[in-house]
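User: I've been trying to design a sequence by hand for this structure and keep getting stuck. Would you show me what you'd pick, starting by listing the structure so we're on the same page?

Assistant: Good idea, let's start from the same input. This is the structure you sent:
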């Protein structure tokens, strides 16, 4: 029947009569002119007559209706609500200005506009306002009454009893949010009171206002621009939002589509009917918009998301990326968090589809401490399923530089916090803004009980376009996580039509997965999603319910649900592509080096806490002298929280303002002081009557035995420096070599068993006595039986393997310090750009003198003067190998003291090598990574500066090997490396001036070492040598060895049978009872990993004095995964067999039996039945 159509055509309406004649001009539009006309409907040049002129029915700011009082906290002080309320307030008015934002020293309060700025005037950052509003009675007829408060900076509105209500973002940027909706009851009553805290930090990131990364303007003043009672014309506001969506449809939908044309026609028609004198014309305009959004769409509210397409392609989730510190310090972040989250809780009340997700347990903890009423509101929203915690980590950390164990703790501390406060664990790890992601992460994410991972930053790559949006990210050990890198290319989307559309058009894996995540909301000072974004999304969804030209967007779900759908759609990932290994960010490569002090603070703190945990664990189990010793769990955790906080992705990378580093260094100083105290307290338990070698009181000690405590589990030999002045001269008998002036000596320590105690000893038969020779005036040769280094005319001209008679430096080339011009294209502290390699100067070691002459250690002292800087380097060679491995070579150690005053220059140390390999090896967390030495492809070229590292513990190396031989650089606090062709480099110091004008200026001390090794990297001792280099012995003088029975016990743990399995961490269990009386269910937790990338099976021996009753393998959160059978060895130790695959991390929990409180006569340790 259908082909007879034209007789039986069914029209929706009767056919219009087609006129016979036509005398009109015809109406074909000039499309671009009509489209451009839409820009004149709101704001701009015609704002006095267009829609902007009708957005408010009323606006009043007279003091009868708006009464303001202010109190300004002195300096940078940030009193909390209750304290602020006790202060004396004085009256204030709109137009007053306040500040400056700098750290000042004197003064009081508000500054009137006309006052001249006084250099001594005190800064005032935080201002508290008491606001008393009188609302005209006839305003009750209106839909909404608002208080509009714009202090030109950020602020927070409280109830008069201190409950945070919402944040304010003042100023005229795109993040502006200055309205507070007055509750209906208050409008009825005609009275409303509020308290507001405004913060003129002058450091909000100001990305919409000038140069984003310039150091903060500390002399900025802020004016109170608005404190008005207003009645918005809500119909006009809704028309404005309608119109905005129509314009976005017109401008963002690519091509000539029906929807795009219809949006322009409709918007144009709205302009034609608008008459600012006719209220009805506004409602008429809204009705016209229904041509695009559907009839009566607005009344459906959030129900709009239940119509239309069954399956949405773009899932919207509200978010507020709050940098825990960046262009503002930590204490300002605490306010930003409270403002942003209270705003979102408020929005949820009005938009039932709104879901908000945020990460970083640290921010929740601050909120819990400082804003308890708000924390409770958020807790309720979490329970309702509207406020989602995500990420499972303590902060959104940098992932290049933290140690493997620190990354594990980020997750452990994060997940445990969320579980303890909200009863939930996260299932999605969340690092959208970190500057590159280590290939160790997938395994750690899965071990932290999460399956999914969200990130974004690689869209910033400045060379190659990352090829995937949704993929399986497979880590170095083969573990995968389901990863989504949003095609919208931002985690602060504005929820526009363009954003929604990009979720599909920029999706790189539509062939296997058609869904993307839209993470929208203003970050940092912006407070998260704005009302207009939620309005816009409703309209976008409404439009897509009637058109296929726009992908449907979905609201009301969680990030975890989004990933669940990805997993289901991709048949558990099997239809998705894989990405193997690290997610290297081709950008921000200077962050491995910027701010030397923070890198060093991180490395030293990680090692210190490792040592604290090991020594405290043993002290807590061997309560010999101090029966009341309790494992200082809380104090250790407090230290960890500080270290984890400083690993935030703009702090550890060195990309924050100077103030942030003042705070960070203070935290590191606290960690060091507390850590050293904890170690002393633990040693007082296990080595009573002992004193640290570094303790000044050593000089008054006349007798005693030097004992080293080895916190690694490798056998080792060390050469230690011993003070010999004063009473300590008695120690001369325990040293092998004394300095010329007799102030210090060098002793040889031996720890043959691995783990535990190291004893002083004389020279061994297999030692390699060192010598130093001066030839002529400018040539110096350091040598022992394994290696030799020659410095001639200030450069390293020869590195020689004595046993193999092999020269490692190519003829005619030299190694040494080198300095590059370092002027990145924009992001100063962040970036070192590829062109820095083109402009450099090679520096010479100057004024070289012999500082030590052997036989244990030889040293050369060299000075370099460059510009306003001085670089003093001590170059040393010891008479022992780098490790106890057979054929281990000795390393050359470089200890530098630098007074650095360069700007925009980059200091490195380089070594050209007679070694050919397409790949160099760099340590990463719990393993290593290989990167090419050539520039075959742009992907190879992009990695001209890379992060080399530290595994679990903290050490770091870069290695260039070929068949049979290699050379490594070991690093003690630096993370930047490169190997281009045959030149291996370590990056030492930069000097950016933004956002910290004084970055890295001043004194630095750091060390590195050059380690030649026989065999390729995989056959070498480089990872062990790097750990030992970073973990010096804790040397103590024990006055009465008989009183320290631990000296005589076997090491608690020995790893036998596979040299590639390392024992990294020893600590007490997360859920142990540390109260003085608690003794049940005590555990020790060990973390081990495979370090070379191959299988291995070890026998983990547990000394008999540890009453182990059960051996459990767990995840990082110490949930039991399985039980391992333990058995008793011939010498009464317990042992357990553990198998690893390459780079596998294992957590082993040892459940202990009851320990006897009183040591038995024949043995100071308990000998209760081990139970197997
Ligand atoms: Zn960030």
């Amino acid at each position: 029947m259908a082909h007879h159509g034209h007789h039986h055509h069914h029209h929706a309406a009767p056919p219009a009569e087609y006129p016979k004649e036509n005398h009109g001009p015809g109406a074909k539009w000039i499309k671009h002119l009509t489209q451009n006309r839409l820009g004149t409907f709101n704001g701009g040049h015609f704002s006095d007559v267009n829609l902007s002129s009708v957005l408010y029915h009323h606006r009043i700011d007279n003091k009868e209706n708006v009464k303001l009082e202010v109190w300004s906290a002195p300096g940078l002080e940030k009193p909390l609500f209750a304290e602020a309320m006790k202060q004396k307030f004085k009256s204030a008015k709109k137009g007053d200005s306040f500040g400056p934002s700098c750290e000042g020293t004197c003064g009081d309060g508000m500054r009137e506009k006309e006052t001249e700025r006084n250099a001594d005037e005190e800064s005032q950052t935080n201002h508290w306002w008491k606001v008393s509003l009188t609302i005209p009675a006839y305003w009750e007829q209106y839909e909404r009454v608002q208080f509009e408060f714009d202090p030109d900076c950020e602020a927070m509105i409280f109830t008069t009893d201190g409950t945070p209500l919402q944040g304010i973002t003042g100023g005229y940027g795109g993040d502006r949010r200055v309205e507070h909706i007055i509750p209906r009851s208050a409008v009825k009553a005609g009275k409303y009171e509020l308290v507001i805290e405004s913060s003129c930090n002058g450091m909000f990131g100001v990305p919409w206002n000038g140069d984003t990364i310039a150091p903060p303007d500390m002399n900025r003043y802020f004016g109170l621009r608005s404190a008005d009672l207003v009645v918005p014309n809500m119909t006009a506001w809704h028309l404005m939002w309608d119109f905005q969506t129509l314009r976005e449809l017109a401008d963002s939908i690519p091509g000539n589509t029906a929807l795009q044309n219809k949006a322009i026609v409709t918007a144009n028609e709205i302009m034609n009917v608008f008459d600012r004198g006719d209220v009805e014309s506004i409602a008429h305009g809204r009705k016209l918009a229904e041509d695009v959004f559907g009839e009566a769409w607005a009344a459906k509210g959030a129900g709009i998301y239940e119509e239309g397409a069954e399956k949405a392609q773009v899932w919207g989730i509200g978010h507020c990326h709050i940098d825990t510190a960046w262009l503002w310090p930590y204490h300002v972040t605490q306010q930003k968090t409270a403002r942003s989250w209270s705003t979102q809780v408020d929005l949820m009340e009005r938009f039932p589809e709104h879901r908000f997700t945020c990460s970083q347990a640290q921010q929740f903890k601050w909120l819990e401490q400082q804003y308890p009423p708000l924390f409770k509101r958020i807790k309720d929203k979490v329970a309702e399923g509207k406020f989602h915690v995500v990420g499972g980590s303590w902060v959104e950390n940098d992932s290049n530089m933290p140690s493997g164990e620190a990354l594990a703790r980020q997750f452990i501390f994060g997940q445990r916090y969320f579980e303890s406060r909200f009863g939930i664990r996260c299932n999605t790890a969340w690092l959208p803004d970190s500057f590159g992601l280590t290939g160790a992460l997938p395994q750690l994410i899965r071990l932290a009980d999460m399956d999914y991972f969200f990130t974004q930053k690689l869209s910033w790559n400045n060379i190659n376009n990352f090829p995937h949006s949704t993929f399986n990210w497979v880590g170095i050990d083969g573990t995968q996580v389901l990863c989504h890198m949003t095609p919208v290319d931002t985690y602060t989307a504005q929820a526009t039509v363009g954003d929604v559309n990009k979720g599909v058009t920029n999706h790189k894996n539509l062939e296997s997965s058609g869904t993307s995540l839209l993470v929208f909301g203003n970050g940092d000072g912006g407070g998260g999603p704005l009302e207009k974004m939620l309005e816009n999304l409703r309209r976008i969804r409404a439009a897509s319910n009637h058109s296929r030209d726009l992908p449907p967007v979905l609201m009301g779900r969680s990030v975890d649900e989004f990933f669940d759908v990805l997993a289901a759609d991709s048949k558990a990932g099997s239809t998705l592509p894989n990405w193997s290994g690290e997610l290297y960010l081709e950008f921000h490569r200077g962050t491995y080096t910027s701010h030397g002090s923070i890198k060093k603070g991180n490395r030293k703190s990680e090692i210190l806490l490792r040592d604290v945990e090991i020594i405290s664990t043993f002290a807590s189990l061997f309560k010999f002298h101090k029966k009341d010793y309790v494992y200082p769990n809380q104090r250790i955790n407090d230290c960890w929280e500080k270290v984890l906080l400083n690993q935030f992705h703009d702090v550890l990378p060195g990309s924050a303002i100077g103030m942030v580093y003042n705070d960070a260094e203070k935290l590191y100083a606290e960690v060091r002081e507390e850590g050293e105290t904890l170690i002393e307290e633990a040693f007082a338990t296990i080595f009573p009557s002992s004193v640290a070698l570094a303790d000044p009181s050593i000089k008054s000690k006349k007798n005693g035995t030097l004992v080293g405590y080895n916190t690694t589990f490798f056998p080792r030999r060390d050469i230690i420096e011993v003070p010999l002045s004063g009473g300590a001269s008695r120690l001369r008998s325990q040293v092998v070599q004394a300095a010329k002036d007799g102030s210090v000596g060098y002793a040889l320590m031996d720890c043959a068993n691995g783990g535990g105690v190291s004893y002083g000893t004389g020279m061994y038969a297999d030692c390699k006595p060192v010598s130093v020779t001066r030839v002529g005036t400018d040539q110096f040769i350091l040598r022992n039986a394994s290696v030799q280094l020659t410095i001639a005319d200030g450069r390293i001209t020869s590195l020689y393997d004595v046993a193999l008679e092999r020269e490692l430096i190519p003829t005619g080339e030299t190694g040494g310090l080198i300095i590059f011009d370092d002027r990145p294209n924009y992001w100063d502290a962040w970036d070192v750009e590829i062109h820095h390699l083109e402009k450099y100067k090679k520096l010479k070691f100057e004024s070289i003198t012999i500082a030590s002459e052997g036989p244990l250690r030889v040293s050369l002292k060299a000075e370099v003067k460059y510009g306003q800087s001085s670089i003093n380097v001590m170059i040393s060679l010891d008479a022992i190998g780098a490790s106890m491995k057979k054929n281990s070579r000795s390393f050359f150690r470089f200890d530098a003291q630098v007074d650095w005053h360069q700007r925009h220059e980059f200091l490195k140390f380089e070594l050209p090598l007679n070694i050919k390999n397409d790949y160099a090896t760099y340590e990463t967390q719990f393993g290593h990574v290989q990167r090419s030495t050539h520039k075959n492809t742009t992907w190879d070229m992009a990695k001209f500066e890379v992060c080399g590292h530290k595994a679990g513990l903290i050490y770091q190396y870069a290695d260039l090997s070929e068949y049979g031989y290699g050379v490594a650089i070991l690093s003690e606090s630096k993370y930047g490396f490169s190997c281009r062709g045959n030149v291996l480099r370590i990056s030492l110091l930069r000097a950016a001036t933004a956002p910290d004008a004084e970055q890295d200026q001043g004194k630095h001390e750091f060390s590195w070492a050059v380690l030649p090794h026989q065999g390729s990297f995989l056959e070498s001792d480089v990872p062990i040598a790097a750990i030992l280099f970073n973990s010096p012995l804790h040397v103590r003088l024990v006055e009465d060895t008989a009183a320290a029975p631990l000296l005589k016990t076997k090491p608690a743990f020995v790893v036998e049978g596979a040299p590639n399995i390392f024992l990294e961490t020893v600590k007490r269990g997360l859920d142990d009872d540390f109260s003085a009386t608690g003794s049940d269910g005590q555990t020790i937790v060990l973390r081990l990993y495979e370090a070379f990338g191959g299988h291995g099976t070890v026998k983990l021996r547990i000394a008999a004095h540890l009453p182990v009753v059960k051996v459990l393998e767990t995840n990082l959160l110490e949930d039991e995964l399985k039980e391992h059978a333990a058995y008793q060895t011939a010498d009464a130790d317990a042992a357990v067999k553990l198998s690893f695959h390459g780079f596998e991390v294992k957590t082993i929990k040892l459940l202990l039996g009851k320990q006897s409180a009183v040591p038995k006569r024949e043995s100071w340790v308990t000998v209760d039945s081990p139970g197997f």
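That's my pick for every position. To get oriented when you compare it with your attempt: DSSP finds 20 helices and 58 strands in the chain. The two ends are 87 Å apart (CA to CA).
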